[in-house]
Amino acid sequence: MKTLYDKLWEEHHVTQLDSGESLLYIDRHYLHEVTSPQAFEGLAKKNLKPWRLGANIATPDHNVPTTRGNDFNSNQIKDEISKIQVVELDKNCNAFGIKQFDIKSSKQGIVHVIGPELGYTLPGMTIVCGDSHTSTHGALGCLAMGIGTSEVEHVLATQCLKVSKLKNMLVRFEGTPVENVSSKDIVLYFIGLIGTAGGTGYAIEFSGSYIKDISVESRMTICNMAIEAGAKVGLIAPDKTTINYVKEKSFLDKKTLEKAENYWLNLNTDDGAKFDNEVVIDVSKIKPQVTWGTSPEMVVNYDDEIPTVLSANDDNKRNIELARNYMGIQNESKLSDLTFDKVFIGSCTNSRIEDLRQAAKVVKGKTIADNIIEAIVVPGSGMVKEQAEMEGLDEVFKEAGFIWRDPGCSMCLGMNPDQLKPYERCASTSNRNFEGRQGYLGRTHLMSPLMAAYTAINGTVGEPS
To answer: Rounded to an integer, what is the distance from CA 190 to the centroid of its chain?
Structure first.
């Protein structure tokens, strides 16, 4: 009896090494501009070429400005380091013959958004990228994980990765959520429950009646944030929902898809397979979740009291004190007592068309609060942007006072012009709220697109209605 992770591991296992690690064959390798320059440089110095050229797909996302327009090119990036990384990706992809959706491509976008939507992510694959949130692709039944720059070079050269096998954790989300609760709320609740180290050393398989009922896009949000629970891998067994998604996006011919479908639908955990750890969560009891501190595990119900030093146990007192000080929380007892400055809807967690539709529904016919200095919506890809504009979502946002941007990682991290100024407070749909993540001394509160939209309208975290 085997788990889904065990099956994917065994199918891609090449050999056991003397160190106890294994060589795993990699089916798909995604590349972006931040972690690839040194890897390509290493190949060139050793006079090596990619082992399987067609396995590699590249796009710039972390450093790209999101106010580009149609005539923009990578040489126009103002920040010198950002420009070098994007230009080097262009040069390396051209030199080695790697397919890239460059900064001028209509299909450019965040690597974890374009991979599935362009049909390059398929069930049963092993997938790596020099980015921790590669776990996103596990939503389609893949063994997907982030790797470091030296490993990027190794995969380019050998199509294999040296890795140790993980333990298995099963997380079952059962029940039906109440209104205004989304997959982002549910995964934040899970992280708050087990902590950011709770999944360390595990591959987490998500299952349960809730998972069966949600879209692939919602599943991606959950697998994306498995890394924030400490896991290396998050994955969901393929089902009819997965197959329908793949058929819609795939460039494979009908005959190949039909043959693959039977294999994909058998990629599941056997009845009676043993997990090293199991967690069961009733999603019907979850309210919208918002982080208050400087770690994704510092999360509460949107209407709960913010933790205090007095309410904490001895082990947590110092962490809570430091987080409250950094976040500028003094006498405020609830999130609704805090006034926000900026709102960011985007990132590889929540920038897909489903996310934008949810947020647009909230803001339609309304106007952002006077205290909101800036509210931006950043589609995850050129294709998401095009679809949203076809549906008129861009106009809904702009009429409400939001700024409509071009695709990129944007304010998820401070590697491009979209950054918080010191002490600005931001409602963000991204995945991390670490100190300085969105800009020096910036204060980040993670939440769903729906709650970010409400915050933009209310000026603070309010009652969703």
So the answer is: 16
Using only the alpha carbons of the chain, give its radius of gyration. Answer: 21
The single residue listed with the structure tokens 């997938």 is 127
DSSP state of 376: E
* Contact call for residues 446 and 295 (beta carbons, < 8 A): no
Q: Are 333 and 298 in contact (CB under 8 A)?
A: no
DSSP SS3 for 134: helix
- Torsion sign (Cα): 379, 382, 383, 388: positive
pLDDT digits (tens, 9 = 90+) for 411-456: 999 999 999 999 999 999 999 999 999 999 999 999 999 999 999 9
C-beta of residue 381 within 8 angstroms of C-beta of residue 407 = yes
pLDDT tier at 306 (50, 70, 90 boundaries)?
A: very high
Cα separation, 440 vs 9, whole angstroms: 40
Q: Which two tokens stand for residue 144?
A: 């997907």
The reported pTM is 0.97
Domains in the chain with CATH codes: 4-163 (3.30.499.10), 167-238+260-284 (3.40.1060.10), 288-458 (3.30.499.10)
Tokens of 209: 């009646």
User: What count of residues does the chain have?
Assistant: 465
Buried b (16+ CB within 10 A) or exposed e, 334-367: ebeebebbbbbbbbbbbbbbbbbebbbebbeebe
CB atoms inside a 10 Å sphere around CB 402: 24
204/211 Cα distance (integer angstroms): 13
Instruction: Could you list the beta-strand ranges (E) of 292-441.
Output: 299-301, 342-345, 374-377, 403-404, 425-428
- β-strand pairing of 289-291 with 299-301: antiparallel
Six-digit token pair at 26? 């990699």
Nearest residue to 275 via CA among 335, 204, 227: 204
401's torsion region: left (phi>0), alpha (psi -120 to 50) or beta?
A: left
Is the CA virtual torsion 455, 458, 464, 465 positive or negative? Answer: negative
* Cβ atoms of 373 and 459 closer than 8 Å: no
> Residue 71 — very low, low, confident or very high, per pLDDT cuts 50/70/90?
confident
The C-alpha atoms of residue 125 and residue 134 are separated, in whole angstroms, by: 12
124, 8 contact by CB (below 8 A): yes
pLDDT tens digits for range 278-299: 999 999 999 999 999 999 999 9
For 411, phi and psi rounded to 5 degrees? -75, 10
Of all helices (H) and strands (E), which one includes residue 297?
none
